[in-house]
Amino acid sequence: MLRKPRSLWSDARRRLLSSTVGLMGMAICAFLFAIAIITPIVQPLDQTLNRDTANKLQPPSWLMSQEERADAAKKSIDKARKDTPWGRFERPFGTDQLGRDIFIRVLHGAPISLTVGTFAVVLAVIFGSLLGLVSGFFGGIIDTITTWLMDILLAFPSILLAIALTAISNNRESFSYKFSQQITELPILQTIFDPPLFNAMLAVAVIEIPIFGRIARAAVLSVRNQEYIHAAEAVGVSRMRMLMRHILPNSLTPILVQMTLSVASSITSVAALGFLGLGAQPPRPEWGSMLSTAREYVGTGQWWYALFPGIAIMLTVLGFNLLGDGLRDALDPRLKH
Questions:
Q1: Domain 8-50+101-335, CATH 1.10.287.70 — does that match?
Q2: For the residues of 114-140, what is the DSSP string, one character each?
Q3: Which of 48, 109, 298, 328 is the most buried (most CB within 10 A)?
Q4: For residue 196, cis peptide bond before it (omega within 30 degrees of 0)
C-alpha cells in the first residue's frame, strides 16, 4: 500500500518537533506568552497600591534573615501584609526605589514587551513583504526605486535611526504624537501603550521594513523563473493572482524564519529606547525603562533592581532566537529525509 506523501509543512512540523533547539525555543516562548496572558488577569497592576515606601530598595526576601524580614513586615504600609510576616519568597526580586515589588513589575512587563515586539514585526512584515513582492515581481523602475529606498534605510545604523524617528515623533506638536494619543486611548490598547511607547514601536517597525523587503524580493526573484510560474503565465493567469496564489506562498519560508528572529531584535530595540527614556514612560513597567531607572542604584549595591529585568529581556531574546533557528532548520528542504 502506497503511503500518502507528506507535504512540506507536515515535514517541517515533524522536524521542528524533533529539534532540541526548536523545542527549547517553543517552550520558552510559550512560557512567556502564558505569563503575558495570565498575569493581568490574576494580578491586575495598581500603581497606587503597589507602593510601600517604608520598604524601598529592599533586597530579595530569600536573601534576608528572619529578623530582617520581620522588621520589613512591621514597617510595611500595605494593609494586606500588616498582620502577615514576610515569607521567604514574599518578594523574591526585591523592591525598587518606591517600594514596589519588582517581581510583580517584571511579570507585568511581559505583555508590554511581547505585544510591542510582535506588533512592530507584524507591521514590518506587511509593508516590507508587499514592497519586496511588488519590486521583485514587476521589476523595472519600480524595482529600482524600491531597492534604493531600502538601501538608504539599511545604510543608517538601526538603533540611531530608531532614536531619531522616536525623538521626532515624541514632539507633542507633531502629527505622529497626536495620532498616537488617539490610538492609545482605545480601551484595548491603553493598558499596554502610551504615546512614546507607541511611537517607539512604529520606529522599530520602520527599521525592520527594509529587512523583510530585501528577503521578499530575493525570494520572488528565485521563484519567478520556476517552471510552474511559466505554466501559469501560459494558461493566462492574471499577474495579481499569480503573485498572491503562486509566488507569495512559495516565498513564505525565509519570511517566517526572519519574523521570529526580528521579534527578538524588536524587543531589544524597544528596551534600548526605553533605557534612553524614549520608550515607555514611568510608572509603566516596561523592562527597558526599569533598567534605565535601575542604573542609578547599581553602583550603590542595589544590584537586584537591574538584574531581573535584564534577565527577562535575555530570556525573551533567547527564546525567539532558538525558535528562529529551529524554524530555519525545519523549513530547509535540503534537510528532508
A1: no
A2: HHHHHHHHHHHHHHHHHHHHHHHHH-H
A3: 109
A4: no
